[in-house]
Design the sequence.
């Protein structure tokens, strides 16, 4: 399940993506429009800046904007930046691999085999969808 932080990050970046090229967007506007607590949004946008998704400018005319075009930021990028991995179990992670606690035999673990497939399919979908795309529900 996606964390609240990840969902807020996606919503904030979508908001900025919808206004791409319009200059800085103030934090209060994003927070109000996306129903995100301003203090939490400040932390999230700082993380998104460190990840290279957002730029910012201080001051009265300041705010936030996407550092790259919306078409260059995928949902997979955002999930990895906020969660660390797309994998549901640590032994199925590509970049944040860790053996599972209490695993009997990772090589023959059928759960790991399933979770590797889930991770790969999830990555295939999330890495193809960018902030620029509107997905029909």
Sequence:
């Amino acid at each position: 399940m996606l964390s609240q932080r990840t969902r807020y990050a996606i919503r904030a970046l979508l908001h900025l993506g919808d206004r791409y090229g319009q200059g800085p967007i103030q934090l209060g506007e994003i927070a109000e429009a996306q129903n995100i607590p301003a203090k939490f949004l400040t932390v999230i946008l700082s993380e998104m800046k460190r990840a290279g998704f957002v730029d910012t400018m201080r001051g009265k005319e300041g705010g936030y904007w996407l550092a790259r075009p919306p078409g260059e930021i995928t949902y997979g990028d955002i999930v990895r930046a906020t969660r660390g991995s797309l994998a549901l179990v640590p032994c199925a992670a590509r970049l944040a691999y860790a053996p599972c606690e209490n695993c009997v035999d990772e090589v023959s673990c059928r759960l790991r085999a399933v979770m590797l497939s889930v991770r790969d399919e999830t990555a295939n979908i999330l890495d193809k969808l960018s902030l620029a795309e509107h997905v029909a529900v």
